[in-house]
Write a structure and sequence with these properties.
The protein is 49% helix and 7% strand. With 133 residues, it is mostly helical. The longest helix is centred in the last third of the chain and has 24 residues, at 109-132. It starts with a helix and ends with a helix. 8% of the residues are buried.
């Protein structure tokens, strides 16, 4: 068989193949495929792991060394949507507390001491009048 015939009979991925099935590639091999795929092995590995979460049948342990092999079809799969949990809503009481805290921190230390004194007096008066009712 001539060199030209050999070149045409090989798959376009044969230059990436290191003894594994041509359908199963390492993250390093995915980086050489081009397109919008990450160009570093670490980036490719992270993307492939995310894709394999939804398609576990498309990843397998690499029998020749540590790590995993991923099926070539993962290249064209869209990344799963990342859901960000909603932040817990503050209660009205928490909002008021945070506002007072911000206001307190925004004034000079002397004013903070005066404000604190007034608040302590108000709270003391409140509990004294509440107990007498």
């Amino acid at each position: 068989m001539s060199n030209d015939a050999l070149k045409t009979s090989q798959s376009p991925l044969s230059h990436l193949n290191t003894g594994c099935d041509e359908e199963w590639l390492t993250p390093e091999q995915f980086t050489k495929l081009g397109g919008d795929f990450p160009t570093t092995a670490r980036g490719a590995r992270m993307r492939l792991q995310r894709l394999a979460q939804n398609h576990p049948e498309l990843s397998k342990k690499n029998p020749q060394r540590k790590g995993f092999l991923y099926h070539i079809s993962l290249k064209d799969k869209p990344l799963p949507e990342m859901t960000v949990p909603d932040a817990p809503q503050q209660t009205e009481q928490e909002e008021r507390y945070n506002l007072w805290k911000q206001l307190y921190k925004s004034v000079p230390v002397e004013k903070q001491q005066q404000l604190l004194g007034k608040v302590v007096k108000e709270v003391s008066d409140y509990f004294n009048t509440k107990g007498s009712k």
